[in-house]
Amino acid sequence: MIKNIHNRSGCPISSSLDIIGDAWSLLIIRDLFLQRTTFSEFMISPEKISSNILTNRLKKLLSFNLIEFYRVPEDKKVKKYFLTSAGIDLYPLIYDLSIWSKKHLDIEYNNIALDWFKENFDKSPSQTFVDDIKTYEIFKKTALKDI
After folding, report:
1. Is residue 118 part of a domain?
2. pTM assigned to the model
3. 3-state SS of the chain?
4. Comparing 9 with 94, which gets the higher pLDDT?
C-alpha cells in the first residue's frame, strides 16, 4: 500500500493526483508501457521533458513504488526502469485518457497513437487491458532475466 504523506484531503482523486497528477508522471508511465526503459529513451519522447524534471519525476515514481530499476551489468551507470505492479495497475487510466482524447480532442495523433487506436478499435476495454498488460509483463520478464 502506498502511503501518500502529502495528501490534501481524504478524497481519493485528490490523493491520487498528488502522486501522478503532474504534467510528466503519466507520460513516463506511458513510455514504460511503450517499452522505453532508460533515461535517454525517456528524453527522446516527443514531449521533450527536460533532464532535471525527468530526474525529479523518476525519483518521485521510485519513492511511491510505481517504478523500480536495475543497473545494466555491462555498464553500471545505466539504469533500466520498469513498472511495479502498482504502476502496471495504472494502465486502465492510461487507456481511458487515450480514449477520452480520441473522442473529444481535435488533434493530429502521432503514428504510435494511431497504430494503437487501430489495433484496439474492435476490442473491449477489458480485452485491451489484458492484452497490453500481458505484453508489458512478457517484455519486463524477458528484460529482467539477464540480471
Report:
1. yes
2. 0.91
3. CCCCCCCCCCCHHHHHHHHHCCCCHHHHHHHHHCCCCCHHHHHCCCCCCCHHHHHHHHHHHHHCCCEEEEEECCEEEEEEEEECHHHHCCHHHHHHHHHHHHHHCCCCCCHHHHHHHHHHCCCCHHHHHHHHHHHHHHHHHHHHCCC
4. 94
